[in-house]
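Below is the record:
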Amino acid sequence: MTNRFDPPTSVTLRRGLMRRGQDLATKLAELMAGTDGDRLLRALGLDAKPGARPEEILRAALEQVEQRRRWLDADDDRYGRCDVCGVDLGAASLLEMPWADRCQEHPPGAARP
């Protein structure tokens, strides 16, 4: 099996995922300490979902980042592909947003399989 990403790219992607996870965990701690949830979600570029508490949204985002880190570490082909259609998101896009889970054709509101 060949790695999809060369070692330097994998390291950069992993660092980006770890930073995002750390940001999410920090914001979750701030939320638990009483900070306004909607403001925290906006600061992270996350959308409030009807009926979902900010804590749930942050925990789901943190789990998504962790899942992608596990896939990257395992060289799982699911990392770096759209969750809806499976298209490769491309290293350039992933270097900008290593936790990306959708292509441009399937924005966040699109249904997952």
